[in-house]
Design a protein that fits this description.
With 160 residues, the protein is of the alpha+beta class. The chain contains two helices and six strands, in the order ααββββββ. Strands 1, 2, 3, 4, 5 and 6 form a six-stranded antiparallel beta sheet that branches. Strand 5 and strand 6 form a beta hairpin.
Length: 160
Amino acid sequence: MKLYEQADFDRSRQDKRKALSLTLALSLPFLALAGVAFALRIEQLCVAGCFIAGAIAIFLYDLRVKPALRYAAYLAEVHSGLTRQTGGALVRMGDDPVYQDGVNFFEIILNIYEDLDEEGERRFLLDAKKKIPGEWLNCDVVVTSHGNYLLEARLAEEKA
């Protein structure tokens, strides 16, 4: 099951544009007010317009723009460079999101040893926007990853 398609990249690009457009649309009227107040030499109104425009820009940048930029950077990072395949038993799937590199993930633990010894556990990170079927728990799976970020997961083929 491939986790990322072209639609994910397109959606990420749209999210960035929406976040930037919203920030500009909400900040621009107050900047215009500050410009008019500056031209009319109304100091308090100019300062208030600049202050409100800056507050809106900072707030929306932290709330909307930065997460969209980080997610786009994450997508670009994991789809360029080396990938590897790892096979093992899927022993745990995390329920609580883990925040790493500005993106939310779920932990996926694979055990690559036949006897399921703790030393064989490998930690992978699954994008919080993606899901792996719960019935895969305690089954043999093969995952494709970039570092410890999951790109693809599938059940291992049965041996004949």
